[in-house]
Predict the 3D structure of the following.
Amino acid sequence: MSEILAIYRKEMKTYFNSPIAFIVISSFLVITNWLFFDYGDYPFFAINIADIRGIFDYGAIVLLFIAPAVSMRLISEEKHQDTLELLVTMPITDMQIIIGKYLSTLVIFAIILGGTLIAPISISFVGDLDSGIVISSYIGFFFLGATYLAMGLAASSFTRNQIIAYIVGIVIIAVFFLMNGMANGSGLLATLFENLSIRFHYQNFFRGVLDTRDILYFISLISVSLLVSSTALASRKNK
Amino acid sequence: MIDVQNVTKSYGAFEAVKDVSFTVEQGEILGFLGPNGAGKTTMMKMITCYMPPTGGTISVDGLDVVNESMAVRKKIGYLPESTPLYEEMGVRDYLNFVADVRKVNGADRTRAMDRVISVTGLSKVIHKDIHELSKGYRQRVGFAQAIIHDPEILVLDEPTTGLDPNQIIEIRNLIRELGASKTVIFSTHIMQEVQATSDRVLIIDQGKIAAQGTAEELKASIAGQMHLDMVLRGADKSKFIEVIGGIEQIHLEDIKLQKSGDLEAALKVDAGTDLREQLFDLAVSNNWKILESSPSSFTLEDVFRKLTN
């Protein structure tokens, strides 16, 4: 455990010693709040309904571009600087390295989540928000971000180039997000794709109901992504 | 201490290390000498648990590097080739991070930090960021992280590459200093380095051990002879050949008359003979004046070239 925390602390230092953390957090909040309050056919100020679902709809798309930017450096930078060689020869397992790094991105995301509270808090003063739906939506949004970040980490663990890690990360997330649109109709394939897609499970959270199937889906995606990352680190042994 | 038995490492079809066996005793400084691409780095990566050997076994203090990897890693301090460091971290932050991972905590941490900072001479740059440091200081930070947990074994991959002559001497002194209490394996492709630093040398070429022993043993086994270049005034060429031919231990390699009329001779002298007095007496009795006499021993470099070509 102390090894995981050592990695976590180092990553947090790196995020906050450079402008990375500030840039990703502020970009997300500015873009998402702008889209929510003042953009599109039904901007919040125009429709006059106390509903913050827009935050999570727009947020899912903005996060698709922001989350891989947070995680792209995690392994590829270590590979690029050759520091990975030193790290994996210390008394620490590959999985501990992956979890420590992942933990740091979750904390960055938690700060982002905290920042989005501006909308529900301010709206609750002027309208009547359904707090059950707000809470379940936030839980869904947390799982969504946690999944994006784990996928971005997996993408980062295969390359020494951060740009490649970023773009591959976006592509992987987009494929999983949009999978429900890949097969039409109601056949077996369509059902399968729908059940595998992030969007399908994400939307269930907005109904104010927490379904263990949706939560298990996200936890599985996260676990597989972390396992893939750790396997990628271990691939040095089979070269 | 370190026992390498019949180790082989293949990258696909390419065999980087071929059936290598050697041992390193406690407290010994072992130099890996070999041309680039000889398999030195691969060997070190296997000892430090970066990757397992394809065949054979490596044990450190009786612990297997594959099956007891975590225990082995605790015993080893490693400085990889080209000193990889986290550029954006501060020196102190970085050393604290390594101490964190290596579980050097509390009062031990404070003592360890003080010790490595003084041993490696980092106090002047301890508050700087790593990307601001010169190559020499970077190397010291690399050493500092390798010794922060006071390991029994140090593995240093080309620790002096890219340094200027003063820095090279400082790093060599550091290796010797650390080698007084630790087992050290370091690699280099520079001959003088192993001669200056190590107790024993392992010459590696094309994945195999070409020779091993102390620097002196290696020189003796291959060379054992000395060169002697002389310039004589007033010497007759045929007379000189006749006189020198009468001495068993001297072999004439080359002889020529300089424009000035002086005689220039290159001699090879057998091992273990000191012919300086005899040559002086011969010169006096024949009325030759010795203008120059420069002996040169075979260097480790000659040994290295002979073995690795």
